[in-house]
Amino acid sequence: MLNLKHIAINSFNENLAYVHKDCDAYKVDDIKTLTKVEIHGGVKPVYAFLQVVDDARLVKPNELGLNNEAFEQINLPEGANISLTLSPPPPSLASIKRKIAGNILSAGEYASIVNDIAARRYSNMDIASFLVASGSFMTASEVLALTEALIGEETIRWDNESIVVDHHCFGGVPGNKTDLIITAIVAAYGLPMPKTSSKSLTSCAGVADTMSVLANVDLDEDRLKALVKENRGAIACYNSLPIAQANKIISSVERHIGITQQQHLAASILAIKLAAGVTHLVLDIPVGPSSRIKSTNEAMRLRKLVEYIGDMLSLEIDAVITDGSEPIGNGIGAVLEARDVMKILRNKPDAPQDLLEKSLFLAGRLLEFDPKLRGGQGYHVAKEILQSGRALETMNKIIHAQGKAPQPRLGHLTRDIVATTAGVVESIDNARINKIGVLAGASQYPGAGLDLLKKVGDRVEQGETLYRIHAVNSTDFAFANSVVDGYTGYEISSKGGY
Amino acid sequence: MLNLKHIAINSFNENLAYVHKDCDAYKVDDIKTLTKVEIHGGVKPVYAFLQVVDDARLVKPNELGLNNEAFEQINLPEGANISLTLSPPPPSLASIKRKIAGNILSAGEYASIVNDIAARRYSNMDIASFLVASGSFMTASEVLALTEALIGEETIRWDNESIVVDHHCFGGVPGNKTDLIITAIVAAYGLPMPKTSSKSLTSCAGVADTMSVLANVDLDEDRLKALVKENRGAIACYNSLPIAQANKIISSVERHIGITQQQHLAASILAIKLAAGVTHLVLDIPVGPSSRIKSTNEAMRLRKLVEYIGDMLSLEIDAVITDGSEPIGNGIGAVLEARDVMKILRNKPDAPQDLLEKSLFLAGRLLEFDPKLRGGQGYHVAKEILQSGRALETMNKIIHAQGKAPQPRLGHLTRDIVATTAGVVESIDNARINKIGVLAGASQYPGAGLDLLKKVGDRVEQGETLYRIHAVNSTDFAFANSVVDGYTGYEISSKGGY
Q1: Tens-place pLDDT, residues A6-37
Q2: What count of CB pairs under 8 Å joins A to B?
Q3: Would you say domain B2-86 falls under CATH 2.40.40.20?
Q4: Nearest by CB: A12 against B34, B57, B128
Q5: Is some CB atom of chain B closer than 8 A to the CB atom of A54?
Q6: Domain residue spans in chain A?
Q7: Whole-structure pTM over 0.95, yes or no?
Q8: Which fold has domain A165-402?
Q9: What is the ipTM of this complex?
Q10: Which helix (H) or strand (E) holds B287?
Q11: Quick one: which H or E segment has residue A401?
């Protein structure tokens, strides 16, 4: 038996167990590799990976240390008696080898993999293997099985609502923060919209990042329900809700390795919506040469896939293919995107028109889920709600109810990227703009990002600013500067426009 | 600037940097994911992954802690002034995405990947992604490029030798410890053989594990050279040599995720041999339905591949396809395998004949690399060296020179697996036997393993012991027991033999 000790280390979604090299209860001198152990003494065994310590101030030979993640799970006080056994490799790891070998996995295999991930029986390396192996190809049935497995056991029920709507964008287009505007419009109309979103995976800012500039997004289930009851809408970071737990662990690995495969993303989005109790979803699929989805054919295949999964799992999906050829709005990064959103809600004349129009279009599609609304009226109703100021009023209520955030400042390290020739902006490369923004620190710091002063079709003079980089710290600023000179992401045609 | 602190934690081949959550020099509260940093102050920047600490006894806000691996690399005393910057993702990670997308990578891309792994700019998750992505397919040119990259910068030179020989087995067959016998014979003959080997990857025991039962295998370069000069042979764990560093890091991830892809293994073996200065290699490719290589066609493809790489990199390779249909020898696990080896060297009548014959055959192939030996004479010369006792004498000299090991005891927890019917052993499943041995603890504890009392073709009575499980600790013993009842790995034909 060993005494439990909390080692206050945050290791980002991996359970670590620290044992002394002369551990009383476990012979560690033969350990050659990362070893999985089971820790007994709590309600359920906790799985962790061994780290061997040679410092009794950190862990004594009669102690077992657990990092934050594992200590929280075992839910015992320091000093509690616990024991340690080697953990056999979970049998579901064999399915990963089968997937590498090119096999189609069964629904049972996906369920086992996801359960083992939720129980932390996979190391991050194992999860990375699963992601890359299953990323090579998945049949529609496999994506369905993965979606169903990812929903998990805990789901949110909305007993008094016949329709619960949400909107999600498949991503790949910087600045695309329609969700905040849509939520305000739909909630003002009166349809319940518990918008769940993640923080950025590989982009400059996720919806939760942008909303967190304005309000607290860490809402628990009771709070979310109360807020939706009160205001018909709320914007929550799904990580704060007790749903789709395995997906959170998988996402943290995806975020690290920077690989987000389309079918995984589809399964992840649909699983979160289903776990959140959503009944009707508008899924925006932006298509463009530098977007996540590059062609209409690809978008169509994705639409068929999500429609199939929606039908099988009773989620009504309206999958909308939209123009993703250039960034949407002017701001890229949470603070700048929140600025654009508030300009639109305030009906400011300098609000970005592309973001405004797209938001009205998508909000309209959502409103048409209401059986009482006549077909084709959604857009006009949405526009009326926005122009009347009711959307702004609802957003202010939502911000107030969630808890107003101390607005972070825009990064003070700036650089203007200017046109080297006069002409017309012919194209803006989404992937490049995203990369420069991420390097400038946008995925870490809300105040970092890019402010696009020119968009496709705009006339520019030589030396005129195309966009401005904002960074919060000097390392990020240097990273962004070091790549932007190679390729700014803007193509200027000197021919003189359309 | 921060003060360096050594945090005595062994994290198994990953550099970790511990910062306080209120770190003076680095804002950590926005960190959402595992973050790569560069630590400056030493000769070269050291790359590590951040762990956030909330305990000033462990790391103060003005300190930066490094785990064993990273502290050793920075090579500065505790208290030294160091600084910390975010590390941009190494550009070679983009090649992994290209590989996932099905592309053929260039030699330059493999070189960049391997360099970045050697510099610890990849997390273990990134390495797992690389292994699974490149494991799906590699062209011969890609395997060549990977091999060349894995050789690394540090190589061992044998200036006074015209031929330096080695033998390596492609693996998949339990108990196959020909190497110790071959080294003794070849060294007794007089050809220099610095046998390098790894500890077990996914098997019950690697050559270095078995040799370490008899002698110290942690030899540095000078020691290895002196020993080969003195005795013409030595058996070293390659991890103790300063060669093929990236390969060691990659292997530790392979060992953890349990996925060893054939082309990676070929590249790894050849790179180690080339880095060790070997000029002539016998590569044993065992083929069998439950071996790593399942068919003669597959073995032939592998032979062509290694011959091609050998020709391109000036390594003379004699690739020999052998029978891998059942385990070789009786012992599986380091102590039991060492017992078999010593029985053969001592010319004991109960020595396993299959291991004896195979060792003579392969040693003969190695001896024939000597231009002075007449073609076809190798086997007979090898047999004469063994039977005369010269091989034993040489092995004893090698053991003495490397440093005799305190022989570990055989695991005292035993169970006899018996035949449920009388008949003849028709087949033994290598993969199953390996799995039971690994679960019994053989890859961790030299004293654990299986002792095969019956082999294919042997007559057995009902209730007679087929093999005996040896375990060192009770958890492993329970694991092995829990699977062996499902399927022992032996098939008994009741028809009455051949």
Answers
A1: 999 998 778 999 999 988 777 776 566 678 89
A2: 152
A3: yes
A4: B34
A5: yes
A6: 2-86, 93-137, 165-402, 413-493
A7: no
A8: Pyrimidine Nucleoside Phosphorylase; Chain A, domain 2 (3.40.1030)
A9: 0.86
A10: strand B280-287
A11: helix A390-402
